[in-house]
Amino acid sequence: MTTGMDTRPPVDNRPPPLNGLELARWAWRQLTSMRVALILLFLLAVAAIPGSIIPQSDVNPLNVRDFRARNPTLSEWYDRIGLFDVYSAPWFAAIYLALMVSLVGCILPRLWQHWKAARAQPPKAPRRLTRMPAYRKVEVDATPDEVLAVARAELRSRRFRLRRPAEGEADSVAAEIGHLRETGNLLFHLSVVVVLLAVALGGLFSYRATVLVPEGAGFSNQVIQFDSLSAGALFDTDDLPPFSMDIDQFRMEFVEAGNQLGQPAEYEATVTVVPEPGAAPETHTIRVNEPLTIDGTSIHIINPGYAPAFTVRAADGETILAEGPVPFLPEDTSFTSTGVVKVEVPPEYGDDIGIQGSFLPTAYLDQNGPRSVFPGARNPEVYLTAWHGDLGLDDGQSQSVYRLDTTDMEQYEADGEPFRSRMAVGDTAQLPDGRYITFDGYVTWVNLQVGRNSGRELALVGGVLAVVGLMGSLYVRRRRAWVRASVGAEGRTVVEVAGLHRAEGSAGDRLVDEIGAITDGLLLRLGGAEGKLED
Amino acid sequence: MDLDTVAEWSRYVVVVATLGYLASWLAYCAEAGIHSRRRRALATAAAPERELLGVTSSVAADAPAQAPSGPSGPGDAELVQRADRLGRIGLGLFGLATLALAVGVVMRGLGTERAPWANMYEFSITGALVASIVFLVLARTVVGRVVAVWAVLLIFMTVGLAATFLYVSPGPVQPALQSYWLVVHVGCAVIAFGLFTVGAVVSGLQIVSERAADRGRTTGFGASLPDSAALDRLGYRLTAIAFPIWTFGPLILGAIWAEVSWGRFWGWDPKEVWALITWLAYAAYLHARATAGWKGSKASVVALVGYATVLFSYFGVNILFNGLHSYGGL
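ok -> structure tokens follow
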């Protein structure tokens, strides 16, 4: 992609000869031409659109599942052309790879050209300076040699690069400035390549896992402990830093009043970290915008919830069959949460128990049924029903911990109706078969994201350099200036000052101003207002 | 008066500013109307032989009676004076409305104790303020004067929309937004949004002006516009300022904040995708302008496509998609 000056010869319009090499050269020229770069930029922009409209499996897998359920036939077609994974689809990759090749193919020759141009002498003064877009003429008493010496000093102080005068150029000074424009342009494009490479290569070594931890519990940084893990192709599980972490407290605060009632106000986790086995434990806090970083791995708060705690006792009222908090998943912004408790019961105490329930942090009951009206736990209640039979946990198949497989179970009934119970903290309900469920209270849980994004530092450096280069390429103007001094008809020295801008989008008036300023500076150096302005 | 009241009252100040923009627009329209009457009279005076043939009789009938002797007549001088007065009134009202809007934005910021760009209402009024200031700076140039009429209309619509449909009561923001990144990341987006808006108006007018020049029009709206090359240059300059800001704020700072807040610097969230699309579109504009054969109205069309993506990343993504950037408050 060439911005600024295009010094290459125009592309040949004749049909190319059917020679393999010629064809390849023709194709290469096309690919690295600005027109194709323009088309590819647009194509990439258009290709990115479907990924923002259609749910993407690596962004929101749940939405993809819902979409598949609603549109099975359409989903089949979408799958064929990778519309659920637009950003890793072959056709998307084809576009950005073509753009990359086009970019690199354009940059490399320009790097070489720029290297040569930056070392080359500014071109000598044209014969007729009057033809230049900016031009001034003055007469002075100083000799031409004095004038040119002063002109050199003036242009040098304006950081122009001067031409070494060759034979027969003794009457003029030639200067140029603004090579930084092309430098910036090249820096920008190279930095974009660096960013893309950093993202692509970094992705190979990155990993991202989630783990749901109730308050008071913990996890260690091992694959087996994660609820989900996505990792790059070259990620090695041995790379995981061997820390472990306990969530001592997870605090949620919500807006208590006003029109934003119930909006989250702050989430904060207080954690104890053991950086590696045997090391001294450290206490840290994690907030939404303040992740914790251990050994290159960051731990972020993703989303929170409640875990009601139950105790299930045998019919004797003494033997505890199960106890402890069970994470329930929030279904709305008021944290109406649902979940299940699976109790595997030793045969002597009866069959398995499956409890299905809703946890309402601020319970409210009206004709629409029970629901939560505030996310904070102001009036926590649990509504539950229960099943008994075989949970099917032993048959080796993995099960969701949030769903009850009721194929081999039977719902408890009381008075011919399904068994239901509404419980406040501390309440105990007796199941129809004599066993007990106690709602002991609740703790909060937090879903943490544990991960490492390799290459992020490099991408950041690339991004910042890209902006620096961009500013150079947009704001630096490349221009040339010439000063010629000769003895005029009246014996005085005629000084001509002219300028030419070569930058895209420069307004002529700024150049005229600059040439004027150079002329004024020249006169000032020659000893004040001795010069006489002619035109 | 407690802080919430200050923030609530800012809405009324914004409404006052909206009315100010409307009044300013009407004054500018009246000015443009007088100028167009003058141009018609001028065209009529310049083509008396055609008038004799009856070709332009309908135009002649529209010509004002007080300008029978062309632009140099005394009636014309009075018209110019009237137009200038209306223009000054328009600019004055524009300035006052901008001042009111600035007060409204500051009150909102003070009342909510944070940078006033955390939801669509706040983003819209702050973006409109940025655009207003840019236009006011431009209004000192000849090109800017002509552009101002359309700028005021656009700002009036934006602020009006903000104060009605997009309005969100003041309140704290969710934990994810409680960060100084909000100030810089969204702040840059607001500034770039304002500059792109001004650039889009200029690009639109550039197309009209170039068309009119190509067809040799001497009357009508197209002829009233500045030289298309001047508009082209102005549009380029605005984009040249906005594009690095867009690169730095929404993209780079956004990636840093995403890394801090969500644990990944790029995740193809709809807002991220559209910020990238906008970036690609304006990159295409800059390249188009540097390509021979694409200068002028073709490049302006690319700039307008770019602005369409800006609008979509703002309104479309906030309203239609449910992504991580769902902070619009609608």
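The two ends of chain B are 27 Å apart (CA to CA).
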